[in-house]
Specification:
Length: 286
């Protein structure tokens, strides 16, 4: 097993992130981008729920390129160094910033949307660079150490369309002096705590930025409410999660059935999590 360097593991605990971690080879990353483009063309042509959930949350259940990445030994070994030998993939998320895109994401925390208990010590998001990620193409920025404060309230910064499109923003002031740009070469990855405050900027370059985010958890994590499922990638137990199976080929029949059920199950839980969070915040303001 390839173990993450001790200084990276320590940085994850203290800073809330660890990067760069070498994962895919340049050839593997290049192949993944090509396969990803083909995948997006296919799901767009099919439409329906497959297109709706093309970028989140279960890409690895229907596409062999994503399945290969979530099982990549260098990535799973790195995660094991942080979380231990019992590992599940809870979700995959595709983040693409097209060439010359003005889109951006406000400072936020992933944990507030996920509806998971136990994530504080037993979960990590791995952000895999399928292309180079740079300041110019809108890479992520971390607020160093922000995970130590736990989750914070979120709100839209204003009612104008641009701010709404940037997403909910953490309702505390982020000190730009502690912000760190996540600069990676294609094939490298970054690992961050689910309570890490982060944002991303516009892409000013002529090339698209492709990243696959993978949420790994251990069986100690449990859904806050309702059924959920996850894919065992190392170890023996799925804990409170219904077990998922790997695809045997792209979009095979059994994989599609599983994908539709798992995506609908997850969407229901996330919708309920956001609704309950909003209710709690409204009560806090009264």
């Amino acid at each position: 097993m390839t173990v993450v360097a001790a200084d990276l593991a320590e940085r994850f605990r203290t800073d809330g992130y660890a990067f760069p971690v070498d994962a895919l080879t340049p050839a593997e990353a290049d192949r993944a981008v090509k396969d990803c483009r083909m995948y997006l063309q296919t799901v767009s042509a099919v439409g329906g729920a497959l297109a709706r959930y093309a970028a989140f949350p279960k890409i690895h259940l229907v596409s062999m390129w994503a399945d290969r990445i979530v099982h990549h030994p260098a990535i799973v070994d790195a995660v094991e160094s942080l979380l231990g030998p019992e590992l599940l993939v809870w979700s995959t998320n595709l983040f693409i910033r097209p060439a010359h895109s003005g889109s951006s994401l406000a400072w936020h925390q992933d944990a507030v949307y996920l509806g998971l208990d136990g994530f504080q010590q037993h979960a990590v998001r791995v952000w895999v660079a399928l292309t180079d990620t740079t300041v110019a193409n809108g890479t992520m920025r971390y607020a160093r150490g922000s995970h130590l404060q736990g989750t914070s309230p979120h709100r839209f910064s204003s009612s104008n369309l641009e701010d709404i499109m940037r997403g909910e923003e953490i309702a505390v002031e982020i000190d730009e002096a502690i912000a760190v740009d996540v600069v990676l070469k294609a094939g490298q990855c970054s690992m961050h705590h689910l309570a890490m405050a982060h944002c991303s900027g516009p892409n000013h370059t002529g090339n698209g930025r492709f990243n696959l985010a993978i949420d790994y958890i251990t069986p100690q994590v449990v859904p806050t409410a309702g059924e959920d499922s996850a894919l065992l990638v190392r170890g023996e137990s799925t804990g409170a999660f219904l077990p998922e199976a790997r695809p045997v080929s792209d979009f095979d029949g059994a994989a599609l059935q599983q994908f539709y059920a798992a995506a609908a199950r997850r969407q229901k839980r996330i919708d309920e999590t956001i609704l309950n969070r909003g209710t709690t915040q409204n009560q806090d303001r009264t």
